[in-house]
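Lecture 7, part B: from sequences to assemblies.

Below are the input chains for today's worked example.
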Amino acid sequence: MTLLDVREVSKKFGELVANDRVSFSVDPGAIVGLIGPNGAGKTTLFNCISGLFAPSSGRVVFDGADITGLPSHRIARLGAVRTFQVVRPLKDMSVFDNVLVGAFLRAPGSAQARATAEACVRMCRLEEFAGKPAGDLPIGCKKRLELARALAAGPKLLMLDEVMAGLTSTEVKGAVELLRRIRDTGVTLLVVEHIMEAIVPIADTLVVLDGGVKIAEGPPGQVTRDERVISAYLGAKFSRRLQARKEERPHA
Amino acid sequence: MRMHPPSAVQRKDLAWLALAVVLAVLPALPAVGGNSFRMHVLILILLFASMAQAWNIIGGYGGQVSFGHSVFFGIGAYGAGMAVVTYGGSPWPGILIGMLTAAVVAVLISYPCFKLSGHYFAIATFAIVEIFNRMFLVWYWVGGALGLDYPLLEEGLRNLMWYDSKTGYYYCALALFALVFGIVRFLERHRFGYYLRAVREGQETAESLGVNSTAVKLGAMALSAALSALCGAFFVQYNFRVDPPMVMSLDMSMKFVLVTILGGTGTLAGPLLGAAVLIPLQEYTRALWGGLGAGVDLIVFGMLIMVIVIKQPAGITGIVRDISRRFDRRPAAAKGGPSLDLA
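Predicted structure of the full complex, as structure tokens:
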């Protein structure tokens, strides 16, 4: 039983093919990383899955239901919730109220929504900013806010679009730890990420896109050694470094 | 740490409750209750505060600036007016029909208009006022350009009319004010109010969190229109007559928008503060200069708006908040904690 099944999804903008017959699936409880160079079509694919765009062809099946071309609010209601790469705080609302908007999706009433929002704010370490307007946060906190808000919506599948970009290495470590904790609560994760040190240790599967086409899929150890992936994205030097690091700490 | 202490919520509600009590005993003071002109000004303040608050639901909280609200105000006025003049009955059924009609018209008009964003939505609503104004001017069934003139009927709540004293109207206006402000206060704290603000701040973000933005905007528009119609019905009962330029005009629409902007859009206190400044300005200049003074209030008001937009776009509520921050030495305020109680 797969939670998300992407079948032959293509997306064309005029003559430009941003995604060309991409297929992959996500099992429940897994962390799947979606990687690839800039312009590979990762965010476009995300937008096709989350309903921001309708795919030009192909199907997206989530939790047994065909969600191809559904409006994004319906997809979110079914339990697939995303964050945005370019952060989109609801600027004039407080951090807490931002998260509360997400929490209302599953909560039957205001009191439960407040409790959920409070837990998510705490989980993403935003307590000290809770009362501040979301527009005034520094970038790292805005990224955490994206995460807290999506988390509050109680997703089955959480789709994160580069939540770690622009963070310091200490912040990345914290974020990786947070993703593990989220997975442990039973949420499945589909993560677009550029920071290989962050995604390789936690991903169960990596899907690699290049030029809109899927060029590899498999466990990180295998994918990071794949010749095509190395030449398209990682580079030989980086691949060796990643392997060396893995041999030092095999269970990292 | 509690992020939203419930005591803050109660403090805000208590402040409003205290204000309602003060307003309720105001006519008992001879300086107010004995002066028909002062009562008139107070009634209009309450009416325009309620009307601006109705506009604020979609225009402030929802961020969809509409210049078409005089249409809904007018539909409500005609609902009551026709029930009394054309059908010779009590205004109440007409008020209900007017509110329902306004909500339906609002949804029908807004559905295509919401596909336009930003300025285009506002421009489209301008056109709608003109269309309705012309339509009612030539529509014989609703009285055309002559409008509807009220007959003399027995005074009291059943006919919603009083002649000698303004006390009855005052308490009706206060009830209207309490109803509209109560509804908005309720929305502010519940799911719909949060969704509405989320749609204003970022439609795609709201959608990504499961918010059906079209449904939220249409719902807010319908509620806003129905409450506008209720205010319009009160207006016609107070004036004993209605014709198209009196209610369905850009002047009227503009007043709802400007009162809210002056006070502070998207805040509970904004419409009341705005009305408390504009209405006395309007009525006292009219009393002072009569026909010669027509428009003087709008000149002053226009200048006030310019100053507000340049200096403090959050309106009077923003100014009050800045001042209270300056004087408030509590650490909570320094950290951007709970803001002004009334806002």
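Note for the exam: The radius of gyration of chain A is 18 Å. Keep this in mind when comparing with the next example.
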